[in-house]
From TrEMBL:
<protein>
    <submittedName>
        <fullName>DNA binding domain</fullName>
    </submittedName>
</protein>
<dbReference type="GO" id="GO:0005634">
    <property type="term" value="C:nucleus"/>
</dbReference>
<dbReference type="InterPro" id="IPR003657">
    <property type="entry name" value="WRKY_dom"/>
</dbReference>
<keyword id="KW-0238">DNA-binding</keyword>
<dbReference type="InterPro" id="IPR044810">
    <property type="entry name" value="WRKY_plant"/>
</dbReference>
<comment type="similarity">
    <text>Belongs to the WRKY group II-b family.</text>
</comment>
<feature type="domain" description="WRKY">
    <location>
        <begin position="253"/>
        <end position="319"/>
    </location>
</feature>
<feature type="region of interest" description="Disordered">
    <location>
        <begin position="148"/>
        <end position="240"/>
    </location>
</feature>
<keyword id="KW-0175">Coiled coil</keyword>
<feature type="compositionally biased region" description="Polar residues">
    <location>
        <begin position="183"/>
        <end position="204"/>
    </location>
</feature>
<feature type="compositionally biased region" description="Basic and acidic residues">
    <location>
        <begin position="158"/>
        <end position="170"/>
    </location>
</feature>
<keyword id="KW-0804">Transcription</keyword>
<dbReference type="GO" id="GO:0003677">
    <property type="term" value="F:DNA binding"/>
</dbReference>
<keyword id="KW-0805">Transcription regulation</keyword>
<feature type="compositionally biased region" description="Polar residues">
    <location>
        <begin position="228"/>
        <end position="239"/>
    </location>
</feature>
<keyword id="KW-0539">Nucleus</keyword>
<dbReference type="Pfam" id="PF03106">
    <property type="entry name" value="WRKY"/>
</dbReference>
Amino acid sequence: MDRGWGLTLDSSDQVEFFANKPGFDRRRSGLVMFPSRVEETPEHREVDFFAEKTKKPFVKNEDSNPEPSAARDFDVNIGLQLVTANTGSDQSAVDDGEGEDKRAKSELARLQAELERMNVENQRLRGMLSQVSSNHASLKMHLVTMMQQKASTQEQEIADRKCEDERKDNGGGARQFLELVPEQSNSVSEERTVSGSPQNNLDATRSKRTGREESPESESWAPGSKRLNPTNANQQSIEATMRKARVSVRARSEAPMISDGCQWRKYGQKMAKGNPCPRAYYRCTMAVGCPVRKQVQRCAEDRSILITTYEGTHNHPLPPAAMAMASTTSAAASMLLSGSMPSADGLMNPNFLARTILPCSSNMATISASAPFPTVTLDLTQSPNALQYQRPPPHFQVPFPVSAPPVFGQALYNQSKFSGLQMPKPVNDAPQLPAPAQPSFTDTLSAATAAITADPNFTAALAAAISSIMANNGNHTPNNNNNS
DNA sequence: CGTGTTTGACCAGCGC
DNA sequence: GCGCTGGTCAAACACG
């Protein structure tokens, strides 16, 4: 897998900017270059997208970079210095002697200082982002309050009108009025529900359901379920949408299941029509009653491709290894839903999301609204070469904290990041942004920040994501992957 | 014995 | 209404 994607899976701040420098000696540096040995062999290892960064599952298999980050700091510098000095022959290193050595040391010192500066900048930007998040939260609260006030005002107006009509007609208006008011109230609460936690919605939905879903364990987000009390059609559709939101991940793996850090229990297997490979059903067993489930199935066309579809939001704290996936899927689902929800005020539609959130990855990530369920599909099966053609020059790699391809990390993971999720490392090269002359992590973050403020589409998308996820935070429990 | 997997049965939605 | 399909349940089974 790592071969195919050519990713450096370490999540440290050490972005490997120099990987594509001409003459760069990867063997010496220990760096994993972006286009590593692409498709050298078929994939035979389990995809471990979300292992803890310390595990470096991709790296360990080949092109290994086992050194701790401090050692890699050194590697970076080596990469810079030895590229030119030693490319030709390892034996000729003594030629230049002290001069070269001094230069190397000074350069090393300079780069270390730069690194520190970047770290500081990173911290600063993180702070900014969290402040933006909190500002957004307060604004959101304000908005909700205003909406409530507006709704109550409308109620009052309608009530007044009805009273007038009643006086005129002296008829059955009173009953209508009585019915109308609760509806209005419902609409207000719905807005809150929509922007609230998917989990809460799920719970609310479940609590209404009858039939065999009696125990938490057997609670189901079964898409087919129609057993909802006829409280309000709109609410039903909202809840149904929340329940059905899915994030699908396509990845090459010979293993029966990708390792995403969560514990799963298989509860069923079915042969799906049109696919000789069975589809397996898993539910999260990290907490009793966790509604998250996933389906795992091999692609009919290419059986080396594993399609994993996640649904639901965890209702329990997650281990770091599982955070990234959970956050990503949750954020993706939230993004998706916020784009399809009435409460989004038409802010976004799925296509807009696809273009905005995943601008560099039209082939890699798609958002489908036409499918039975709103689904974000992340295609991780493409080679890094293909990626590079879609991306700006790969001067810098996204230090995605988990073993996932860049697009996955950049796009959806960003949503998680900006929603206040506690992620090990900052991210992001906003792909549509002009690449900095000398790309650096700081530049990347700056570019992302600039994009937030400059690009209204980007801002809108982020706002929606933050909105939905922050609402989750507000309502939720310990969960939602962002126990920061 | 506890936990997880397998697998046939059951249920609901959907299309005809 | 009927059959197909997807999703889930739960008893039986396997395993440590």
